[in-house]
Known about the structure:
This protein has 77 residues and is mainly alpha-helical. The chain is 74% helix and 0% strand. It has a single domain, classed as Helix Hairpins, CATH 1.10.287.
Amino acid sequence: MKTKDKKELHLKTLKELEKLVADVQDEVVKLRLDKAQNKLKNTSRLPIKRKEIAQMLTIIRMKELSEKTNPPAGGSK
């Protein structure tokens, strides 16, 4: 994943990130199936996709922790 892509991930909302994680996880499942059937030419895509998932999950966790420590202003009295 390029640095530009990582920076764009930080700008996305939690819902968008969770949807991206689900999409990439589906890709990994398909890649594993293709690998098992010897259809996959580039097997290095599997660890790359898993790494992308880990990066997205890390960003999600960072956002969750920042929301807990810094609740949004206004609303509650």
